[in-house]
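Following up on my earlier message about flavin-adenine dinucleotide. Here are the inputs again, as you asked, copied directly from the submission form:
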Amino acid sequence: MASAPAYDFIVIGAGSAGCAVAAGLADAGSVAVVEAGGSDAHPFIKMPFGLIWLMGSKRDWRFKSAPQAALGGRQINIPRGKMLGGSGSINSMVWFRGRADDFDNWQVPGWAWSDVEPAFQEVEARLTPSEMRNPHPMVRKLSRLFGANTPTNPTPERESGGVFRFNMRNGRRWSAADAFLRPAQAKGVTVLTGREVQRLGFDGHTARTVNFTDGTHLTAKRGIVLSAGAIGSPTILLQSGVGPAADLAAQGIALVKDNAGIGANLHDHPGAGLHFTGEGYGIALKQAAAWALSPLNFLFRRNGILSSPTVEGGMFFNAHGTDATPTVQTHFIPFFMNWKGSRYAPGTGFFADVCVCRPKSRGALRLTDQGVSIDFNLLSDPADLDLMVAGIKRLRTLIKEAGINGTEGHPGPDINDDAAIRDYILAHCGTAYHPVGTLRMGQGDAPVTPRLAVRGLQNLWVADASVMPAITSANTNAPSMMIGHRAAQMIRADAA
Ligand SMILES: Cc1cc2nc3c(=O)[nH]c(=O)nc-3n(C[C@H](O)[C@H](O)[C@H](O)COP(=O)(O)OP(=O)(O)OC[C@H]3O[C@@H](n4cnc5c(N)ncnc54)[C@H](O)[C@@H]3O)c2cc1C
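Thanks, got it. Here's what our run produced:
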């Protein structure tokens, strides 16, 4: 039998973190990146507004959560990018490092703010995040809130509002695939698309092979890096026999290493929002020319409606208004978002949400008789729901204070006491699409060590959003890339 192709390192998943890992390992030996999805060469990926058609397409894994107990058994959508660039090819490109003390609070040796800040700077040298070029004028009104005398970009470090920064270049998406993967390919890194990993093969406790759903495999001489994201990476480990022994036995999977922490600690930013009619983009006769010209404006001038990644700005604020420490984030979308089911409906307006910066609720990803169960256990900690109720109330006040012209259409001003707002949130809450934490790094019995190795196994590392012990206070793409970038440095130093 012909022997399987062998590489020094195999990186599983060409997402935000995996691309950074590949670039960092490029000259450390032979490297293959294996990705379940296809290429990112599609106009909707480069065009910021295209994400509304990418979500739910074949470039989205289209996961669904387990029934959420606190939400009356409702299941929520979990979009995840399935292509080169991963979720960073389908996302809104909002760029935040997080708050400095997010990292200090992790209390993982080597991951304090002072440790990670230089890596953010190195990542940003390649991604060059910058303010959006032509935001809708009303988004700028948010920058005058919170006593700001001059317009600023919002930051989770303090109460602030305005236009966000984005990883776009010349009005187009500039993802980790652009910034890291293609330069790595030029240095000889092999990229294999359409290759979905089923499980890993072990020689005792040493990871040796990457086995695909089509029955083929590749051999890794020095190491395997799991960068399949907070859903994909723990799933592959569980399918490989690494995880809670009882769950694996129940599924008839031979145990390689018992670790109750694999798949635990799943969490995300819970979010729910308000729909307004009034100022903003939408389907209206007076905007017909702007929409008709938008493809040409995007193609030739890199502006116009199609250059909007939908979220254009937002705020960080203290939900209860008791001090200046932000507890929630608002994403402000200057587009009319219909709440009656149909995607395209006449009207103009905007949407603004409230997402909890540091949610307390924790769930788990597990293998069950029904397959992979992704249970966020959303709002299971009452503190998260309390923050959202307070946040929705203050959001209404802030929108008025900003002088934005809109009438709340959904849920509407009649939903105004705590009980009614709570019911609205429970009926409509989702997440900000930032799942993290399923392969928490840390000391003691954490499934992943502070050097990103899978505890108790050799030649196996994790580098993606799943290693975050606790979610950062804002969007998670930049932190995921920072993790991938640092992972490559650690693996180069630690690999046999
Ligand atoms: C719709 C949406 C909007 C978002 N908006 C923002 C935003 O504006 N700003 C922000 O900061 N964050 C945003 N995020 C979150 C952000 O994109 C993610 O946190 C980040 O991309 C996670 O990086 P990752 O490397 O952990 O995983 P991913 O980027 O998801 O990469 C995982 C990769 O692994 C591949 N993979 C998975 N399983 C397998 C397998 N079995 N075999 C082979 N390959 C596999 C996947 O196809 C994917 O390419 C958004 C996410 C989504 C989905």
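One observation from looking it over: The chain has two domains: 1-129+167-267+363-376+434-496, 132-165+270-356+380-428. Hope that helps, and feel free to reply on this thread.
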